[in-house]
Specification:
There is one protein chain. The protein folds into four domains: 89 residues, no CATH class; 104 residues, 2-Layer Sandwich (Tetrahydropterin Synthase, Chain A); 49 residues; 35 residues, no CATH class. Helix content is 48%, strand content 21%. Helix 1 packs parallel to helix 2 and helix 5 packs across helix 7. The two termini are 84 Å apart. The N terminus is likely disordered.
Length: 305
């Protein structure tokens, strides 16, 4: 939710000089110049009309000098001479040439992301925090004169942020993440923020920290190292079991090879081996892909597939 803006506005009131000039025309004291605006031209036309039109014009001028204050709001009127006074709800006389500032007196609620640094250097984040406040009705004139429009952006947010930074700086990151300490932290922030805002005619009602997290770089490194060690500890039994399975497979293959050798060994006589060699050579020489070249030296025989 974006920061609330008080409904500041100035209802149209005829400028003091224009009203004075209009009254002078109506009473025949002066004539308007050619450069006069539309309002003065209308006044001149009514001045030349029968006298019955004059009360209607005066009524319109007087009505423009009134201000309407809706329920739940207050207002401050500044006269043409700079005098300020409060207005209550309803329709009130503001005065010719006056300016009226309408101010919301209801409790305001703002979602704010608060930041700070813990005692051990951890970055503190209090996202989706809620700040509630209201303007003190009895000090409306002083508030309008000293603070003006956009009080949350100009005054309340900086004060609350400064209070949060001051409070969280006294806690370690582990203490800040302990939910049992959150009420104490909120109370301290509220107490520190109320004093300067009260002097500026604003009542800070509450500061709620919904989610408070604090993570420092040493803590991040510790968490990462711990996670790595946990993963190693969890995978060690699995690695040991895999090594055992591979060793068992190798032993089985060795036993099978030994048994096969035991069966074949009695049949490997010199004559059997010579016969196998001869048959292998015959198969190689008679292969269609074999090319036999006879060299000059009878002892050298090159066979190219």
């Amino acid at each position: 939710m974006s920061s609330p803006r008080l409904d500041w506005y100035s209802p149209y009131t005829a400028p003091f000089e224009t009203v004075a000039a209009a009254l002078a025309v109506l009473h025949g004291m002066e004539r308007p110049s050619e450069s006069s605006g539309p309002m003065m031209q209308s006044v001149t036309a009514m001045a030349r009309a029968p006298r019955l039109a004059h009360p209607a014009l005066l009524g319109a001028l007087l009505l423009s000098a009134c201000a309407t204050v809706p329920p739940g709001y207050g207002a401050v009127v500044t006269s043409a001479f700079g005098h300020m006074k409060p207005l209550e709800e309803g329709v009130s006389w503001a005065g010719i040439g006056a300016q009226v500032d309408v101010i919301d007196l209801r409790q305001q609620e703002v979602n704010e992301d608060l930041r700070g640094v813990a005692a051990d250097g951890a970055q503190v984040h209090a996202n989706a925090s809620v700040v509630t406040w209201h303007v003190i009705p009895s000090e409306l004139v002083a508030f309008d004169r000293e603070v003006g429009p956009l009080p949350y952006d100009r005054l309340i947010r900086p004060v609350v942020q400064a209070a949060v930074r001051r409070v969280v700086a006294g806690y370690s990151s582990f203490a800040l993440m302990d939910t049992r300490n959150v009420p104490e932290i909120q109370a301290r922030v509220l107490a520190i923020g109320r004093e300067p805002l009260r002097r500026m005619h604003v009542q800070l009602d509450a500061v709620f920290m919904r989610s408070l997290t604090a993570i420092s770089q040493p803590l991040e490194r510790e968490i990462e190292a711990t996670s790595t060690e946990e993963q190693v500890a969890l995978t060690a039994p699995q690695l040991l079991e895999l090594a055992r399975q591979h060793a068992d497979e190798r032993r089985e293959r060795g036993r099978a090879t030994a048994r096969a050798n035991e069966l074949v060994a009695p049949t490997l006589t010199p004559s059997t081996l010579e016969d196998a060699r001869r048959r292998a050579w015959d198969a190689l020489l008679t292969s269609p892909s074999t090319h036999v070249i006879a060299a000059e030296t009878p002892a050298v025989l090159e066979i190219a597939p």
